[in-house]
Amino acid sequence: MSINLLLFKITLLVYLVATGLLLLDVVFRRELFGRIARRVLVAGFVLHTVVLALRWFDVGQTPVSSPHEAYSFFAWAVVGIYLLFDLRYRLAIIGAFVCPVAVVLMIVSSAMPKQVREPNPLLDSWWFPVHVSLAFAGYAIFALACVAGIMYLLQERMLKGKHFSGLYFRLPSLDILDNINSRCLSFGFPLMTMGIISGTVWANAAWGDYWRWDPKETWALLTWFLYAALLHGRLTIGWRGRRAAIFAIIGFCCLLFSFFVVNAMTSTEHSFRAMQGETMVLPR
Amino acid sequence: MNILVVGLSHKTAPVNIRERVAFAPTAMEEPLKQVVALPGIAEAVIVSTCNRVEIYASSRDPEGACAQLRQFLAAYHGIAADELNPHLYDLCGGEAIHHVFRVASSLDSMVIGEPQILGQIKTAYGYASEFKTVGLILNRFLHKAFSVAKRVRTETEIASNAVSVSFAAVELARKIFGSLADKTVMLIGAGEMCELAARHFVNNGISQVLVTNRTLERAQKLAAEFNGRAVPFDSYVEHLHQADIVLTSTGAPGFILDRPQLEGVIKRRKNRPMFLIDIAVPRDIDPRANDIDNIYLYDVDDLQEVVQANLKERHKEAKKAEAIVQTEVGQFHQWLGNLDVVPTIVALRKKFEDIRKDELEKTLSRFSHLGDKERKSIEAMTAAIINKALHQPISLLKQCKGDRACDGYVDAVRVLFDLTPPDPDAGDTSAEDGLNELPLKE
Fold first, then answer.
1. Phi-psi region of A227 (alpha: psi -120 to 50; beta: other; left: phi over 0)
2. What number of helices (H) and strands (E) belong to chain A?
3. Residue B195 belongs to a domain
4. What interhelical angle do A67-89 and A174-207 show, nearest 10?
5. Do B63 and B126 lie in a common domain?
6. Hey, are the CB atoms on B179 and A237 less than 8 Å from each other?
7. B319 located within any domain
8. Number of independent structural domains in chain B
9. CA distance B206 to A184
10. Whole domain around residue B266: which residue ranges?
11. How far apart are CA B380 and CA B287, in angstroms?
12. What confidence tens digit (pLDDT) does each residue in B168-183 have?
């Protein structure tokens, strides 16, 4: 087993421990667990950064071109964004909802073939890291928005229905959850927009046309419109709360679909097969 | 020395008994002095609240003392012992410590987690120390009880959820709005409950109060009380969109706010959430308003249900608290045991040492021709005799520290050698020194 793989497995283990501690914090309401979990998670994130850096070094390109690399990168982005938000909100319960997402991504990643491929000359451009970093940062922020949305719907249901489970006492106020939604949108949307624009500029430089309507692009545009509608609704007609939460959840489902299904199933330039150089995408 | 509790509480006695054995807080000196004057009782604290009357005491003879205290309670309040006895409980040793720690932590209260009882015990302790009826043991004991109560409050969330309807409303508002600092509350009608809830909201940081009432003067008077603004009753709906929280308690026979009206209001608020609390019976607000997005409508029964949920949550937290109390009881019990053994050993040694010195002096004064060397030998020999004679009983006492049998041994030693009780003001560190064997001189 290579060092990289070993570190990857340790990272997964550390994330699992952090998730367990966060769940303990929520179930038994001992803040101590949450504080330890935060440190464990930071340690895991640092380790994960090392894993990705080593992988980058091995591949010679931004490590997102195989499913194993991409899901791992996604998990890394989710944890990083959560830690950033945690600086402001300091709520273990959000972590207890977010960390399982990262853990699932890591487990999916670890189930994928992990061999290092030849670098693909097509991706040999500075646009590649720029494009994927922006896109993944956006994904991660929208993942957080989706989680906050789920929490909002749970809490709102209890407040409306007047039936309170133990979760009611642990979930933060509706105001905080809606606030996270709005913040995620105001950071995530520009990132996603820039991600798409950087992609078009790169496409133009590589193939001479900005937009080719490959399925990934179509889905990305659709999702972009969804988030644009939410942002517009929030800013002008006072959409908030439940509606915003539902939008954030649907938006993220679209992202997941385009990420898991489109990349894996199709053979256009965003697919893993193309990125690994199995099918050539030629300029039209 | 043993700690004991004799008393009654809301769990064992109805109010008509409790009110008859209550002690007036203004006249605590007399009963306290009487209790410590009873044979066998060394120290005493009397806790008297509307839900419990308890005497905490330390005694060497717990059974006798319990009987004494039972008699005292009946005699002092002029109640027949037969009538009072079935309601009284008496606990001693670990059980008494456990009980008092639970009471102070509000685990034995009518409403679990309510903090008043701790203050009441502190007051009771204040009287006892003012009238000097507490010594080393109860001092230490009650301070321990206070620190256990504090631990329970900080390490569990036993007191964190409201158990009154009006405070439950404030907590719900917090779950909806987060901070209440920049929020506005509107009072429609002026029921007593409504006013109380409004006061809770104001105390929790609400920034503005609007008041409306059929009679404008009443509204103005109430508004002045809250530093708020009165709104005429026939146009209050026009102001409704300014309010984040609305409290209604009019005597109107039907709904004064219906669903379409509130739909308009929420639109005007750009969907900012609204928390409506309908305290009126019959209700003031059409219950279907709860179906509108971002409106949360609660009536009296709903709030009652929140209180029930909060109580359930407190009971869950109480389990954690019980575990904390349990460990603390163990620790304190051990301290109490040590306290008894150590001064007993010290007193025992002192007794023998005094005898040795007296006798040595008498003997040596008659043999003035003895040289320094001989004198020292004789001194060393007497010290060795005492050390050897006391070795077995003292090591037994040291070993049994914390055992149940220990109390019996300590008692026997004290009676057999006629040892005086330990000085309550002496700390246990100085006593610890006496544990070492007498220095042997060459």
1. alpha
2. 11, 0
3. yes
4. 140
5. yes
6. no
7. no
8. 3
9. 28
10. 165-300
11. 95
12. 888 899 999 988 988 9
Interface residue B289 vs chain A (CB under 8 A): no
Q: What is the CATH number of the domain that holds B268?
A: 3.40.50.720
Q: Are residues B178 and B295 in the same domain?
A: yes
- Could you give the angle at the alpha carbon of B276 between the alpha carbons of B271 and B282, nearest 5°? 140
Q: If DSSP codes are grouped into helix, strand and coil, which group holds residue B378? A: helix
Residues of chain B neighbouring A173 (CB-CB closer than 8 A): 174-178
Judged by a CB distance cut-off of 8 A, whether residue A127 touches chain B is: no
Considering CB atoms only, which of B161, B175, B293 is closest to A159?
B175
Residues B287, B293, B295: CA angle, nearest 5 degrees: 50
Domain final position from B114, B129, B160:
B160
- Do B280 and B249 meet the contact criterion of CB atoms below 8 Å apart? yes
Interface test with B, best of A26, A151, A153, A175 (most B CBs within 10 A): A175
Would you call A173 an interface residue with chain B, using a CB distance cutoff of 8 Å? yes
Distance (Å, rounded) from C-alpha B4 to C-alpha B100?
10
Residues present in chain B in total: 442
Instruction: Judge if B154 and B171 occupy the same domain.
Output: no
Q: Which residues of chain A have pLDDT under 50?
A: 283-284
Is A166 close to B313, i.e. CB distance below 8 A?
A: yes
Q: Is the dihedral of CA B236, B237, B239, B241 positive or negative?
A: positive
Q: What is the mean pLDDT of residues B432-437?
A: 39
Q: From A172, which residue of chain B is nearest by alpha-carbon distance?
A: B175
Q: Which CA distances in Å does B181 have to A263, B174, B186?
A: 48, 10, 15
- Are B225 and B350 part of one and the same domain? no
Task: Confirm if A103 and A40 have CB atoms less than 8 A apart.
Answer: no
- The model carries a pTM of 0.74
Question: Checking DSSP bridges between strand B274-278 and strand B41-48, what pairing results, if any?
Answer: unpaired
Element (H, E) at B334: helix B300-366
Q: Is B263 on the interface with A (CB under 8 A)?
A: no
B-chain residues near A237 (CB < 8 A): 270
Partner A contacted by B308 (CB < 8 A): no
Residue to test with chain A: of B241, B265, B294, most A Cβ within 10 A: B294
Please report which confidence band the pLDDT of residue B35 belongs to, taking 50, 70 and 90 as the band edges.
very high
B317 is a domain residue: no
Among B103, B86, B94, smallest CA distance to B45 is for B103
Sheet with strand B295-299: strands edge to edge: B229-232, B208-213, B184-188, B245-248, B274-278, B295-299
Provide the number of CB pairs (under 8 Å) joining chain A to chain B.
55
In a domain, B313, yes or no: no
CB contact under 8 A, A175 and B177: yes
Please write the tens of the pLDDT for every residue from B365-398. 888 888 888 888 999 999 999 999 999 988 888 8
Are B140 and B197 found together in one domain?
A: no
Mean pLDDT over each residue of chain B, to the nearest integer: 86
Q: Which residues of B touch A179 (CB under 8 A)?
A: 178
Q: Examine the residue annotation and report whether B50 is marked as an active-site residue of this protein.
A: yes
Cα B169 to its chain centre, rounded Å, is 27
Q: Verify whether the Cβ–Cβ distance A173 to B306 is below 8 Å.
A: no
Shortest CA distance to B305 belongs to which of A245, A163, A52?
A163
The pLDDT of residue B275 is above 90? yes
Q: What is the pLDDT of residues B52-75, one digit of tens each?
A: 999 999 887 888 999 999 999 999
Which of B270, B298, B305 has its CB closest to that of A238?
B270
Asked if B319 has any chain A CB less than 8 Å from its own CB, the reply is no
Residues 6 or more apart whose CB falls under 8 angstroms from that of B414 comprise B344, B347, B421
The DSSP result for A117-162, as a single string, is PPPPGGG-STHHHHHHHHHHHHHHHHHHHHHHHHHHHHHHHHHHHT
Which backbone phi and psi does B47 adopt, to 5 degrees?
A: -105, 125
Residues of B in contact with A29 (CB under 8 A): 157
